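mind reviewing these tokens:
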Amino acid sequence: MTDIHLLQLGETVTEGTITQWFARIGDPIVEGHPLYEVSTEKVDTEVPATVSGTLVEIVAPEGSTVQVGGVLCRIEPAGVGSASSSTVAPESNVSEIPQNSVDNDPAEATFADSAEGPSVTRSAGGTSENQRSGGLLISPVVRRLLAERGVDPARVTGTGKAGRITRTDAEQFLRDNPGQAEPFNKIRRATARHMVSSKATSPHVLTAMEVDYTAVDEVRLAERAAWRDAEGSGLTHLPFIVAALCDALSEYPRLNASVGDDELVVHGTVNLAVAVDLDFEGLVAPVVRGVEDLSIQEVARSIVDVAGRARSRSLSPDDLASGTFTVTNPGQYGTLFQFPIINQ
């Protein structure tokens, strides 16, 4: 019997929430094929099986939170033979998640349930947890989300395979029906926790100055057509601002710092976190590392890359880790002035 443990998915990741199993108890497992989906802060990841065989026990059902290194399931290796019993463990190292806790929220990211694959965990009695509610295919997480708002699943139109109601379907229904509270998704909960923590960690101050941007914009306008033809994306103001930012941080290195345990940690390199809007469903800040060593062209390409992967929900946990300074650009919405909260 082989225990499957929760892997270290990123240098800052300490736990994960199981959002979906791709196999049922008794199913054959193929090494390298997706076995389960785990949600860490703002990122969902499909994890492949590390061994071939038969799934005989699910220790961590969908919606449970497990510490890194905790046992998720057990697989009988190929050629060993069938297990005498197959069950879902009721307790083990899995912690139940308080329904109303910001700090221990289950995986509620808007994009997590958009995957078309069904939830396939089975209970000890053998009933699939990807149950039908009134003849509708619906996962446990989505069923709970609708139940919390008092919504009959039959009122929701499913867009998944075989009419499956996805989390996106449920959240859209809640938004479209006035008078109902809109539940926080995981990204909004994580953002709220971080922003409140940041306010408590560091006093916030703001200084504003005018800068003559005429010469820079002349260069940008002169080069943007050729840039779009060569790169397939627009040449925005942001790469030029990043270049100026790196010059400023080189001159004033204590601004490129973090608050540690009774100390100020001054970083030797600029790992730039770029705030990316996810269709007004929340913000993530993927990191471009060593940005002070990049040219303006390389900065522009890197920003396009991380922003694109953020919007396609294909970031890894490490993509969001180790940022030392954050930039955000609300000007595209016509904003004249903003006082952002420090991302830390």
User: Anything to note?
Assistant: The chain has two domains: 2-176, 202-333. The mean pLDDT is 81.
